[in-house]
Design goal:
Strand order of the largest sheet: 9-8-7-10-11
Helix content: 25-40%
Radius of gyration: 20 Å
Distance between the termini: 21 Å
Oligomer: single chain
Shape: globular
Structural class: alpha/beta
Strand content: 15-25%
Number of strands: 11
């Protein structure tokens, strides 16, 4: 994620960074040394335990190289030999928020519950060495895994206020509108992120058909699956009013073109895009979730 890239880039100025992952991290090789964990083609339900076992074995074998091992909890993906646990998301909370609302295969609910029990076992072994990025995630972790608030430290992510500034609207706004073929004076809804189904991008797209306003455009920055959204989309959407932008390094340019950030997500842990948008001077229209509430 962009958060991990920025953290590693900053730490690399004074520390040696090693990343164990399935695929190369999107960062320069001088920032981090990458170790491929798993390269097997397997269903996700099998790939998670394979990754857990393999990454834990790799950390054990390379332990003399590392002074500190930080593992990220996401869908129960946790390393046995971590010194610090970064609770990135609570699958039990996400499952509860989306059940009956999105067409998620039942196998995923079973999978998340199994890994949730496994995660609970490991989290209880490490009180005082667990971090969360928002107060909401700390509360969810305590609720679902039987921990005390004192067991978890809240360490919010940061936003570069020089990079994300209201002044960017004057610097980049008109130019980006021309690049995207959006008329001056048009109202622009901005959506930034991946995991489009979980973030309910279909609701934002469908709103264009509901409003039927020729002066409202939607800019979508990020990568996701339109195939997943398909069953939830209306037939009368004016796609001429929608602009798709692939993941961009200069994301601050696109905040400069928006008039509001719209994020009707079903689950968030910190929602860094909300903070970036606020720093850029945009109002944020979002669901009341961890991170956003903070």
């Amino acid at each position: 994620s962009m958060d991990q890239i920025e953290i590693c880039t900053r730490l690399a100025k004074e520390h040696e960074i090693h990343v164990i992952a399935d695929s190369p991290p999107f960062m320069p090789p001088e920032v981090a040394t990458w170790y491929r964990c798993c390269d097997w083609q397997a269903p996700r339900a099998l790939k998670l335990p394979l990754f857990i076992a393999r990454s834990s074995a790799m950390v054990w074998g390379l332990r003399d190289k590392f002074d500190l091992v930080v593992a990220q909890v996401s869908e129960g993906c946790l390393n046995f030999n971590a010194d610090v646990i970064d609770v990135h998301g609570i699958s039990k909370r996400e499952t509860a928020n989306t059940k009956g609302e999105l067409r998620t295969p039942p196998i995923k609910y079973w999978q998340w519950n199994v890994y949730g029990a496994y995660t609970e076992h490991l989290l209880r072994r490490r009180p005082g060495r667990i971090i969360a990025h928002s107060e909401g995630v700390r509360q969810d972790t305590c609720l679902h895994f039987g921990l005390l608030p004192s067991d978890i430290a809240v360490v919010p992510l940061g936003v570069d206020l020089e990079r994300f500034s209201p002044e960017n609207r004057e610097r980049h706004g008109s130019q980006v509108r021309r690049e995207l073929n959006i008329p001056e004076g048009a109202f622009v809804m901005l959506f930034v992120g991946a995991s489009w189904l979980r973030k309910k991008l279909h609701l934002v797209i469908n709103s264009l058909a509901v409003m039927k306003n020729a002066h409202i455009y939607l800019v979508i920055v990020g990568q996701g699956s339109m195939a997943e959204l398909g069953p939830y989309l209306r037939d009368d959407i004016d796609w001429d009013k929608v602009r798709f932008v692939p993941p961009a390094e200069c994301i601050e340019r696109y905040y400069a073109v928006g008039d509001v950030l719209v994020l009707p997500s079903s689950y968030e842990t910190f929602s860094r895009v909300s903070y970036e948008a606020a720093a850029a001077g945009l109002p944020v229209l979002a669901t009341k979730l961890p991170g956003i509430e903070d």
